[in-house]
Write a structure and sequence with these properties.
Distance between the termini: 47 Å
CATH architecture of the largest domain: 3-Layer(aba) Sandwich
CATH class of the largest domain: Alpha Beta
Largest sheet: 8 strands, mixed
Helix content: 25-40%
Number of helices: 17
CATH superfamily of the largest domain: Glycogen Phosphorylase B
């Protein structure tokens, strides 16, 4: 890899918030581990009937991650909600974007987590701001359809999701079953598998505590108590097992729509608080206490895209009983657990009895180390970073935002980097470390993720062909000897990009520091001495550089929104006007020639 620190903006459909502190916590964990390698920010938007001013925004750094949450109000009337939701949702994203841009900056790449909602604004940013995005899909796949047990998939928002996937630069899912599901429903984007982050706390690596009796083997189930988790099947199996033996306890952690029904079922079967215990919602620390002090974990779901709790159990050395529900089949095997058929009470009963008889035979240390090697933050962060670099293949150059394709492992030099060093550059070269007329009095910028070298572009202190790509944006018009400058670029670099003001710009908006008017023909640049010292169209000059620092004596200052918007439109249009800029992307060598008046 290289020393460039990417700027990654997460668009999260699920994220911990003031109403639900555990929603999408695995996405927050991913953002946190990524922040060790990239500058990272998160936008999360949610409807809120109690939003005070229509849109309530919160922004702060949560550890290293700049996080913006915007809550937006919508009316309680269901018809009005349907009409206004998407509009107000996008407005809320725009407000969050303005905060991010002002306080954190512009991202190199957007990382969409669950495209159900966050994918739509990402699509707009791709179309209108040309910021590419990658997708991580956390939604549970239709396992029955993927395994061929049903003929029609359950796929919410199918048309929108396929559109969002189509325009993504790359995508990841957290399990093989999810990848197969998307391939089967016709998503043609490249998809890779990156598991979720599971952070093992070394201080919790012990086996038993006073929470449980040493005379009994302990099983734990952790989930939302909903139909898809099939906890009723666990209750029924424990009832049958309790008739055969009582050397075990099963503890259920979590809450949900079926909690009261399940407790009542256990009470009617005579096993509540005897062999089966319900604890409701518990804190993360309490969950770890139950998990790490147990002997095994039970997962009886119909569908799972990954199952963080199953992976977490393995990281603490606990074998897992799981159904063939999708995600866990990637990492559960005979050495660390038992895989059983879904919705089969007899098979579940037999698996529980087998686990109770053999649980002491599992190599807990080996289970823990193998799982930690697979799901550790360092491993997941590295795989995610590789996905980012595979997706970020094009980089903006110069004032025109011309895009150049640069390989991940390329070493890039920015010559005359000045106050606007290119994001992709690994090394910066500039002759002036202090203020200079050549930067219109702007200060030199030295980002921490880039090496800075003070030197002359006409005699660069680098070996021949030592850079894979050289960026020379708005410097060729400043040098004393442009032919020698082009020769130096050819000597030091293998490829490159040069951009200068064009003849039209020099005519309408001349700058005293520009020594040459630059044109091109084929792979050649032609330099003609610039004798224009003052604009004949002063009105245009002052308006083009409206509110621009460094041109204080010649430009206008205004707070008029109309003039500011018109100025922005002019600058956007100017990029596309012939002879406004001269630019060339070269390979092997670039030829510079002097041209007589």
């Amino acid at each position: 890899m290289n020393n460039v620190r990417l700027k990654i903006l997460f668009f999260a459909s699920w994220y911990p918030n003031k109403h639900n502190p555990v929603l999408g916590v695995f996405i927050k964990n991913k953002a946190q581990v990524v922040s060790n390698h990239c500058d990272t920010a998160v936008i999360y938007v949610q409807k809120d009937a109690f939003a005070k001013k229509g849109y309530d925004a919160e922004s702060s750094y949560e550890e290293k991650v700049f996080t913006v949450r915007v809550y937006f109000w919508i009316p309680r009337n269901l018809i009005l909600q349907a009409l206004l939701y998407n509009f107000r949702f996008l407005i809320a994203y725009y407000k969050a974007w303005k905060i991010v841009k002002q306080q954190w900056g512009t991202p190199d790449l957007i990382h969409v987590n669950v495209p159900d909602r966050a994918g739509l604004p990402a699509l707009f940013f791709k179309w209108f701001k040309h910021i590419p995005y990658v997708i991580t899909e956390h939604s549970t796949p239709d396992v029955a359809y993927t395994k061929g047990e049903t003929t029609h998939p359950v796929f919410a928002n199918a048309i929108l999701k396929k559109l969002i996937w189509k325009h993504s630069s790359l995508g990841s899912v957290d399990s093989t079953i999810s990848k197969k599901f998307f391939e089967k429903i016709g998503v043609t984007s490249k998809i890779i598998v990156i598991p979720n982050v599971v952070q093992r706390k070394e201080s919790q690596l012990h086996s038993r505590s006073q929470l449980f009796s040493d005379q009994r083997k302990i099983g734990v189930h952790i989930s939302n108590l909903i139909e898809r988790k099939n906890v009723r099947g666990i209750v029924q199996a424990i009832s049958q097992l309790s008739k055969l033996r009582e050397d075990f306890e099963i503890h259920v952690l979590g809450t949900g729509e079926q909690e009261k029904q399940l407790i009542e079922q256990a009470r009617n079967l005579g096993i509540l608080d005897r062999t089966l215990f319900f604890h409701g919602y518990v804190s993360e620390q309490q969950k770890l206490e139950y998990l790490t002090h147990s002997d095994f974990h039970i997962l009886n779901s119909d569908e799972e895209g990954f199952s963080v709790v199953a992976a977490e159990s393995l990281c603490y050395g606990k074998p897992v009983i799981t159904t063939d529900c999708g995600g866990p089949e990637d990492f559960i095997n005979e050495n660390n657990g038992i895989i059983i058929k879904r919705r089969d009470p007899v098979v579940l009963l037999n698996a529980l009895e087998q686990m109770l008889n053999t649980v002491k035979q599992y190599n807990c240390r080996q289970i823990s180390e193998e799982a930690n090697a697979r799901f550790s933050p360092q491993i997941i962060a590295q795989k995610t970073l590789e996905m980012y670099w595979s997706a970020k293949t094009e980089w903006k150059m110069g004032n025109t935002s011309h895009r150049c394709s640069i390989p991940t492992d390329a070493i890039v030099l920015d010559v005359g980097s000045g106050h606007q060093p290119n994001r992709r550059a690994n090394v910066l070269l500039d002759k002036y470390s202090g203020g200079t007329i050549h930067r219109t009095t702007q200060e030199l910028v030295r980002p921490q993720d880039k090496e800075f070298v003070e030197g002359d572009a006409l005699a660069m202190p680098f070996n021949d062909k030592s850079f894979d790509f050289i960026i020379a944006s708005h410097i060729a018009e400043h040098v004393d000897d442009p032919v020698k400058f082009c020769n130096e670029l050819s000597r030091v670099g293998k490829r490159g990009y040069i951009e200068t003001p064009g003849p039209l710009t020099e005519f309408l908006m001349p700058t005293r520091s520009h020594k040459w008017i630059v044109t091109k023909k084929g792979n050649r640049l032609f330099f003609r001495e610039n004798c224009i010292t003052k604009s004949s169209f002063l009105f245009f000059f002052r308006f083009f550089y409206l509110n621009r620092d460094g041109y204080v004596n010649d430009t206008w200052k205004t707070s008029s929104k109309i003039l500011i918007i018109l100025n922005m439109i002019l600058i956007k249009i100017w990029f596309h006007i012939p002879y406004a800029y001269t630019s060339i992307e070269w390979k092997d060598s670039i030829v510079g020639m002097l041209k007589s008046k």
